[in-house]
């Protein structure tokens, strides 16, 4: 298989923001690894038995569930313990596993910022494919400048799935994607922007990059916890205007 190039990210602190709930919080991260590039069509094709029309473009039209499947396949190929198990579409992350996985959104934002506190880690035209470039599809990975962690395309080109739920009270099972895409304007291509979609959803501007790192915890790691997901899913009082009851 074409190697998945990884970068080692030292531990540190990252601040996150949920605009809907109007809350900000900080996350202390342990060291982890993350892909230097988004997963490419070539890599997806090699592991999942598909055809790569444009081998060096980011893999897109990939659902969150398919990205999870790719992570486990990559782990098995490398002789690592898979990070995920399934019960239907109910996915469990075994946080002590050192296999390939999706980054938590805290990991993703920390790795993307690379020490910057600004919306972009450099001039957007130099680091990201956006609507300003006038392109009609994702571009080959690595075509713009990397950040100080040596990561390419964290902003622009394609959005990237993360492990976390977006907002379980409002959107149920929707998972986060980050980073902005080739058709987005500058306002959406920022390190802090959170969007998401259903686990089976796939679009031509949503891909993913992998992470690695196991932790001596249970159902919680790197800014995510199962208990917090349950707490965020609860709604006190009547539903806000415009909401519909979940499921």
From TrEMBL:
Q: Where are the transmembrane segments?
A: none
What top-level branch of life does the organism fall under?
A: Bacteria
Tell me a Gene Ontology molecular-function term this record carries: formylglycine-generating oxidase activity
Which first-to-last residue range defines the signal peptide? Answer: none
Output the Pfam families linked to this UniProt entry. FGE-sulfatase
Q: Where in this chain does the record put each Sulfatase-modifying factor enzyme-like domain?
A: 9-212
Task: Report what the protein is called.
Answer: Formylglycine-generating enzyme required for sulfatase activity
The major lineage groups are:
Bacteria, Bacillati, Actinomycetota, Actinomycetes, Micrococcales
